[in-house]
Amino acid sequence: MKNLILTISILGLSLTTISAQDIHQNEVPSVILNSFQKSFPKASDIDWEIKGNLYEVEFETGFLGDDHKVLYSRDGKLVRHEEEISKSNLPKTVLVSIKKSFPGYRTDDIKKITEGGKVIYKIELKNYSQEWKVIFDTQGRILQKIAD
């Protein structure tokens, strides 16, 4: 039984390593690195990974160190951009929807996600007894709501 558990644990760790691999910036193809540096010239605390056929970079920007996660295709095209934003940067439609659907909740961990020209907002909403992860579109419609 111990051998089975050990084998499963090793296999699980191996699969995790296969699915995402940390890489050094000098291992990133120049077309991707150039695209990244052009789009985010003030990025700091930069970490690169390969995830399948995509290159993922996590970094910070700004005085407060706002978090970003960007995925690039092998040809240097930005596929997805996830960025930490403040409540004041949410569209009014999303704020109205939060106030209507989640009265008394506070917002936390707000992310703006852009993919394929489409923008969504992933927000943690909390009150004294409940916590939700909710995804809104730009019109304030709830696309997904998961209890946390």
TrEMBL record:
UniProt superkingdom: Bacteria
Every copy of the Putative beta-lactamase-inhibitor-like PepSY-like domain together lies at 20-79, 81-143
What SUPFAM superfamilies does the entry give? BT0923-like
Name one matching Pfam family: PepSY_like
Q: What is the recorded name of this protein?
A: PepSY-like domain-containing protein
